Amino acid sequence: MTLLNEDAKGVYVIAVTPFAEDGALDLTSVDRMVDFYEEAGATGLTILGQLGEAPKLTAEESCVLTERVIKRLDGRLPVVVGVSAPGLAPMRELAETVMGMGAAGVMVAPPWTLKTDDQIFSYYAGVGEALGETPFVLQDYPLTTNVAIAPKVIERIVREVPTCVMLKHEDWPGLAKISVLRAASDKGEVRRISILCGNGGLFLPEEMGRGADGAMTGFCYPEMMVGVVGAYQAGNVERAHDIFNAYLPLARYEQQQGIGLACRKYVLAKRGVIATGNLRKPGVALTPADIADIERLLARQARRLEEIGA
C-alpha cells in the first residue's frame, strides 16, 4: 500500500463501525459497508475515528476491524486508522500493528490536557518521534478535544515534524484558518500539506473554495461529498453548491450532538449498507419523532436530487 502523503485529495470517508443486535462486531456488514463506500466514489477510508465508536472497542476488536477493512479493499483504496491515545506507547503499538496490516497512515488527535502552544507543539513532536516513519494526520477538532490549535502552531509542526502530512480540519468557525495556512504555503513559508475537512461536510463548498483538498468525514450519503469535491475539482463551483444544497437539510440534522451518529447509522441501515443501526452501549436510540423527521428529510431530498439531476 502506498503511504499517505502531502498530495492526498478527494474524499476519505470516516467509516461507522457496524454492530449486531447483541453489540458484537458485525463483520459481514463491515464487508458490505466497505464495498458501499468504494462504489460511492470514496478516495480512501478512515476507521477508528470518534464517530466510528473507537473508544467503545477493545484493543483486539480494533485490530480485527482494521484487518477486515484492509483485506476487503485489497490495496484498491488507502486506509487511515485513528490511533489517538492518552500515552505515546499505546499509540505507537497500535500504529505499528495497523501499518503492518497495510494501513496508509494514522490519525492523531491531541489530548484534552494540552493548553499552551508550546505544549501542543511538544506533543506532536513527540508523536512524530514515537511513530518513526509512519505518516500521520493531525486532527484539529477543538469542539471535541477542547484544544485550540492556532495556525502558527500547525505551521511549526509542519516545519519541524516531516511525517505530519495532512491536517484534518474541523475547527468551527475555521474557514479563516484554511486561508492562513494556504497563504503560508503559497508564499513558500511552510511545506504544503493536504487539508481534508470534517464536521459532516457542513461547510465543504466554502472549505474547497479556501483551498482544502477534499473531505475526511462521515455522512450517510457519501455521494454528496464525492459530488461536491468532484465538481469543485472540475471547476464547476455552481454545480458543487447545487449538489451540496440538495443534501444540506439531512446533513444539518445529522450534526446534532447526541443523536447524530444514530441518525447516520439509521439511514445506512435503511439503505442496506449495515444490518442494524445499533450504537454500542452507552449510546442513544432514535425516538419515533426523530425517525419521522429523518423520513421526511429523505423524501424531500430525493425529490430535490431528481430536480437537479444528481
Automatic annotation (TrEMBL):
InterPro entries: Aldolase_TIM, DapA-like. The keyword Oxidoreductase does not apply. SMART domains: DHDPS. The keyword Iron-sulfur does not apply. Keywords: Lyase. Belongs to the DapA family. This is Dihydrodipicolinate synthase family protein. It comes from Devosia nitrariae. The lineage of its organism: Bacteria, Pseudomonadati, Pseudomonadota, Alphaproteobacteria, Hyphomicrobiales.
